[in-house]
Amino acid sequence: MMRTYPTNSPEAAGRVLAMAVLSDGHCSAVELETLRHMKAAERVGLSPAALHHIINGLAQDMQTDTPGDMPTFDRLAPPTRDALLNGITDPYLQMDLQAMAHELVVADGHLADGEAALVNTLGDRWHSHHIHIGSGDGTA
User: Fold this and answer.
1) By the 8 A CB rule, do 108 and 20 touch?
2) Distance between CA 17 and CA 47 in Å, rounded?
3) Nearest CA to 107 among 21, 46, 42?
4) Helix or strand or coil: residue 107?
5) 59-108, pLDDT tens digit by residue?
6) What is the pLDDT of residues 15-38, one digit of tens each?
């Protein structure tokens, strides 16, 4: 069961950032450095320590919901995806989170299927204008 946070809260926004970091099934040092560099925690009203706590909590929740290897975003059950994304309804916060998520998923120079699925889902769900991006395997 996923942790719940109030709608549009710093914690709900932090969870979307956490999902961007974990969307490919692992958390890389480059992604953590990108979070720090873009001051992502501060932009959503969290301390860096609080954001790291949310990342760790989401990783635990994801492993509890999907035993075995850390699941990627594209392998999460639809209700789990919905729980992650329904916590943000403010369109300005959605735009900022979508931009930060995109920066995070491309930070390591490789776009995994889970990362592409997250960015595309954010654009579809939050009705923003975006270009669908494919994964690194040559498919779109």
Assistant:
1) no
2) 13
3) 21
4) coil
5) 888 887 666 677 889 888 888 888 889 999 999 999 999 999 999 999 99
6) 999 999 999 988 899 999 999 999
Token pair in block for residue 140 = 């779109």
- Per DSSP, helices labelled H in the chain are 10-22, 29-37, 40-43, 48-65, 78-85, 91-105, 113-125
Helix (H) or strand (E) holding 4: none
Q: Say which residues have a Cβ less than 8 Å from residue 139's Cβ, sequence separation at least 6.
A: none
> Cβ contacts of residue 57 below 8 Å, gap of 6+?
3, 18
Residues 6+ apart with CB under 8 A from 102: 119
Q: Is the pTM of this model over 0.90?
A: no
Q: How far is CA 140 from CA 7, 105, 113, 120, in A?
A: 32, 16, 10, 11
- Determine the pLDDT at residue 66: 67
Rounded Cα–Cα distance for residues 65 and 48 (Å): 26
Instruction: Give the integer Cα–Cα distance in Å for 120 and 132.
Output: 6
